[in-house]
Write a structure and sequence with these properties.
binds pantoate, 6-stranded parallel sheet, 3-stranded antiparallel sheet, Rossmann fold, 2 domains
Length: about 290
């Protein structure tokens, strides 16, 4: 495995691969890799085959964090990530420097942004108004440098994946966007680099995200007709209020493609929620199914 820091080197490699007609899989990450990320790497390998190239980008992107968020404290563990990538069969681990990604600095520097203006507005976009502009901008930059055939994102960040799909289509990137299933701990908690922030007591309380999803799944599977989303939201709120360290940010029910709110919930509706567990904000989502 090759570790690349320079953006220009990464770009030259990508152009060389393109000239040779190689398929390239990109897994964009902010590092602190866990089993969820490694499942994305496996998906990328499956898509490009043994002769293709798999690139993991590792960049804690400053423009997707608001000033009061956890950019400074975001876990950074390059040596471990390097080992994890090598063991997972990654060809290139690309770790760009801020100065190359945002010449002139992230706040004063860029005057060109990529902003998806429809799917970005709700849920995470309402809670974090500049977040998706930062994500869309950095993903566009990663696409432009790595020139992937396939890019793999995790379903845990459902809205992010929808925004990336949309920008890929709107900006005519010849890239297949693959969304890989969420990987969960045995007790259902979705894997996330931010789970490391949790104290043991908070970690135990964080399972309420999955319990809320399971509760709604059971209600939908048992119902003979559609259920009111306001009723289900109230039930989720009650479940979460029973956990002293957990505070609900939002729970939403929506159409999976458009992300438009669904006043009535039935199999096929999507559900997403965000909670604060102490000072850590966690998100999760699921498609609601007919049978359990
Ligand atoms: O999901 C993430 O880790 C980030 O939002 C991404 C896609 C790598 C962009 O910085």
């Amino acid at each position: 495995m090759r570790l690349v820091n320079s953006l220009t080197t990464m770009q030259r490699l990508a152009l060389r691969w393109r000239r040779r007609g190689l398929r390239v899989g990109l897994v964009p990450t902010m590092g602190s890799l866990h089993a969820g990320h490694l499942s994305l790497v496996r998906q990328a390998r499956r898509r490009v085959g043994p002769a293709g190239r798999v690139v993991v980008s590792l960049y804690v992107n400053p423009t997707q964090f608001a000033p009061h968020e956890d950019f400074a404290g975001y876990p950074r563990e390059l040596e471990e990530d390097r080992r994890r990538c090598r063991a997972a069969g990654v060809d290139v681990l690309w770790v760009p420097a801020d100065a190359e990604m945002y010449p002139g600095g992230p706040s004063g520097g860029p005057s060109t942004w990529v902003s998806e203006e429809n799917l970005s507005r709700r849920m995470e976009g309402r809670a974090r108004p500049t977040h998706f502009r930062g994500v869309a901008t950095v993903v566009t930059k990663l696409f432009n440098v790595v020139l992937p055939t396939v890019a793999v994102f995790g379903a845990k960040d459902y809205q992010q994946a929808a925004v990336v799909r949309r920008l890929t289509r709107d900006l005519n990137f010849p890239i297949e966007v693959v969304v890989a299933p969420t990987v969960r701990e045995p007790d259902g908690l979705a894997m996330s680099s931010r789970n490391r922030y949790l104290s043991p007591a908070e970690r135990e309380q964080a399972t309420v995200l999955w319990q809320a999803i399971e509760h709604v799944q059971r209600r939908v599977a048992a119902a003979r007709r559609s259920l009111r989303s306001s009723q289900l939201a109230a039930e989720v709120r009650r479940l979460i209020q029973a956990r002293p360290s957990v505070r609900l940010d939002y729970v939403e029910f929506f159409a999976p493609e458009t992300l438009q709110p669904a006043p009535q919930v039935s199999p096929g509706t999507h559900m997403a929620l965000a909670v604060w567990v102490g000072r850590t904000r966690l998100i999760d989502n699921a498609r609601l199914e007919e049978r359990r």
